[in-house]
Amino acid sequence: STQKPKPSNFQRNEYADAQLQDIVRKMRERATVYKEKLKDPVLSSPEGSPTASPSKKKPPPPPKEEKKEEKKEDAEVKPEEDHYCDMLCCKFKKPPLKKYIEYLQLPDSIDSYTDRRYVAWLMLVTIAYNWNCWFIPLRFVFPYQTPSNTIYWFTIDIICDICYLCDLLIFQPRVQFLKGGDIIVNRVEMKKFYHSSMKFWLDVISVLPFEVLYFFFGFNPAFRANRMLKHNTFFEFNDRLEAILDKAYIYRVIRTTGYLLFILHINACLYYWASDYEGLGSTRWVYDGKGNMYLRCYYWAVRTLITIGGLPEPQTLFEIVFQLLNFFLGVFVFSSLIGQMRDVIGAATAGQNYYRSCMDNTVSYMNTYSIPKMVQNRVRTWYEYTWDSQGMLDESELLEQMPTKMQLAIAIDVNFAIVNKVDLFKGCDTQMIYDMLLRLKSIVYLPGDFVCKKGEIGREMYIIKQGEVQVLGGPDGTKVLVTLRAGAVFGEISLLAAGGGNRRTANVVAHGFANLFILDKKTLNEILVHYPDSEKLLMKKAKVLLKEKGKPAPGPPVQQPRGLASLFGQKQETPKLFKAMLGGKGKEGLARLLQLKRERDTQVIKQKQRKSKEKSKQTKILKESRDKIDFTKTLRASDLLILQNKPEQEEKQPVEPVASSAPPAQKEEPNADAKPPAVMHRTTTKESLIISMSPSPRAEEGEILKVEVKEKTKK
């Protein structure tokens, strides 16, 4: 047969070679996984779970129904297509009007604690309430309301009244309430509850239309004084707003300042009313009618309430009484507001004061015991970083005040994303991870702190929450082997290993500030008691980790073969015996091999001799124990009676052979094999013979025969 000529220029496809190598690698990994699966069926199969068997198909519907469904789908699609607006060369999609209505439509019930729309509505009502509180006294006392601008004041009053009516008729009857621990959302029950409350009657009085008296007494703002009775809505808005603000103390300071300004505003209005009553400019004490009337009166109110002094002396009895009441009211109001402001600021800085107190106590303790300055500086750095990073020294103190469910909810939101990325816990029960989140302890390490040292006993595992740590090694222990970042885990071998494998294998140092989660071995065992499947999975992963740990360090990367050679496995390593033989040159390698063989044969012979000696010794001990048992069986009741009455001389006869030079192991054999004499002289004696068997303290010796001689006691 003719051979085909080989091509002179052979071209190799690198992409095809890479694909073939990848396929071979995956097939080897798959075979390895299946081998481990056969050895230990705990690990889950790498294959995906089979899909559910397809259910029986229902019979197709009649064609009429199909046509109806198609028509409905077309009808549903058409409205969406109609919401496009063509403008010049562009086409804009316009949302349907129904969506706007659904968004603006009020729900059947309103949760006053979580619904932000309700808080926004309360803010609108509060603005209307503040308008009435500030401007009704101002318009009643000062001549700012004139016939030329009455229409503007009247328009704003109507807008405020509309807000009051909407709150009374629409919003308040929809607010949920608690009854016996249950949240009531029934529309009728909510309306009935609101109508039976004091807030409802105050809201009704605040919207009564006393403005009809304008037709009889003129346009007087005093007829709107009932609008200031809607104070419950104002205080409810303050509570709801503080609950949703991040820094509520800022709003408390602003609100307290507003209280002070409002009291000064009322005092200024009263001073102008008193001046008008006495006559503007009639005395030195009253307002003289010059300048801006409101600012001059407000200035006088500030100096009076704060008791600054330097004011003109009152002349008439009315002025004296008015000034005395003003001074008393000023002392009471000013002291109350200052105390409230102090409480607000104190509550805002309570955490900072606690931090300063703890740090001062620690510094005082270190100074008392003369702690080195370097250690003191590190302690101060830890305090400052911990407080700046998390706003508290110990997070557990805050969580302990909450129920367990809330603690779990917060822990899941804060830490679950970090723990879920850990490869060690992948595949474990989710509830087990939740339980573990509640047991994690957060600790901050400073730059250069040793998290763990090589050789020490490991009782905990570390999960990096924030920062970096470095694993050190090398001859001097300063070489950085690897840098671990957020989400990495180390120390799991010491936590999961059985006895003997719980020592640290490397030094770990914090590189910069590092915040770590710590999970100790005792806590993990307490959790795994309730999750046996997760425990088996973790133990299997621990075996794999220990196996990888025992492997030698990887050498330089071996260049992979190219072409078809990559389909075959790598050449196996040469056995150590052949390495030893081929290590020398010429006869030296063979001589080394023969020497190793002689040493091995010598060790085998010694082991056989040792085993034979142990076997013979055990046989001898077993024989002695059997002889003792046979002797006790041959003794009868009559023999015991003869031995009991035996004279002393006959008792001493069998004892004489003890002095012979026989070995100790053979001394008891004649006595054990000896038979009682056929003729015994029966005589009386004062002594009695007691024979007993007791187990030997050594397991291999059997039982021990005891013979005791005791004198008879006289009765």
Task: Record the SSE blueprint.
Blueprint: H1 14-39, H2 63-82, E1 84-87, E2 90-93, H3 97-104, H4 116-141, H5 150-171, E3 177-179, E4 182-184, H6 187-195, H7 198-206, H8 214-217, H9 231-244, H10 248-278, H11 293-305, H12 317-348, H13 350-368, H14 373-390, H15 395-400, H16 404-419, H17 430-439, E5 441-445, E6 450-452, E7 460-473, E8 479-484, E9 489-490, H18 492-496, E10 507-520, H19 521-528, H20 532-550, H21 576-582, H22 587-634, H23 637-644, H24 648-652, H25 668-673, E11 687-695, E12 703-711
Antiparallel strand pairs: 1-2, 3-4, 5-10, 6-10, 7-8, 7-9, 7-10, 11-12
Helix pairs in contact: 4-5, 4-9, 4-10, 9-10, 10-11, 10-12, 13-14, 16-17, 17-19, 21-22
Features:
715 residues; alpha+beta; Jelly Rolls; six-stranded antiparallel sheet; 12 strands; 11% strand; elongated; intracellularly cGMP-activated cation channel activity
Note down, in words, how this protein is organized.
- The chain has 715 residues and is an alpha+beta fold.
- Among the domains are: 204 residues, no CATH class; 146 residues, Jelly Rolls (Sandwich).
- A hairpin with a 2-residue loop joins strand 3 and strand 4.
How would you summarize what this structure contains?
It catalyses: K(+)(in) = K(+)(out); Na(+)(in) = Na(+)(out). This protein has 715 residues and is α+β, with helices and mostly antiparallel strands.
